[in-house]
Amino acid sequence: MSGTPDLIVKWGNEEYVIKDIFTDTTIAELKARIYEDTGVRPDRQRLLNLRLKGKIPDDEQTIGSVGLKPGVKLLLMGSREEDIAEASSPPENMGEVINDLDNDPEGEEIVVENAEIYLAKIHKRIQNYKINELNPLRENKKLLVLDIDYTLFDHRSVASSGYELMRPYLHEFLTRVYHHYDIVIWSATSMKWINEKMKLLGVTDNPDYKIAFHLDYLAMISVCTPKYGLVDVKPLGVIWGKYPAYSAKNTIMFDDIRRNFLMNPKSGLRIKPFRQAHVNRSKDRELLKLAEYLELVADVQDFQTLNHRKWEEYKGKKHRRRSHRPNDEFCG
Length: 332
Hints:
single chain; Rossmann fold; four-stranded mixed β-sheet; 10 helices
């Protein structure tokens, strides 16, 4: 039984030093120790960067088997029972914090238990989550919210530079849509990681477009559903509560995981994941096609009237209208 340096667990803005951890300590035992210090029950704990070959290790596995290195800081997501109980009583005058739990456009029922709890969580994010605006938001622009991993960037493949893992036509895409949309980056990772990746990809200081702000995993909430179990989602109500000019009528979110917009299914568009960059870079045209779609719908007054699952058909209809113009329009 050999020792390992004390582990540091970061939960929200607090850091906890977990002492007396050994290589044969199991994940279950580690979670029990974290529970003692934070009050977050083991079954509610999610240690974001505790992985073994890209997968979450079983509770029976040991600290030594997952290869934790000295100085590693574990990032904890989860809520105390008292916080959940407090959230079960929604505050008064919440207004419409966008309860967008309608059936999804394909008719698949979206069931989220205790919806009032999640609306209360959103309200708490609106009150407590601090947004660092990188560039001013503009009047009369719609809002585009973008994921990073597998949406703009293949974060699993190995390459000598970030450019090799960047989704093709990223800068052209952002330049085109910036004319009509304010752009927000929202990733289920830490803010430090987001800032570094945006710099690596040449997005941060690009002269052709501006990013309004970044959101990280702390702006997300956990939702329990019969279909998916306990999942972390990106509720657009957090943005809408802080910026009333935006709503379901003028916001669209791209993500490669559909459940990330479970709270706002009509505002989400599931983008085709960009994986195996070395194989797919030469043939991936997804951002070019989506840039055209965003341009075509930029004048739509209410995005709730759109079915983003059928975005390619919408674009096709526009093209068909153009192709059926009277012949004299094409004559010199």
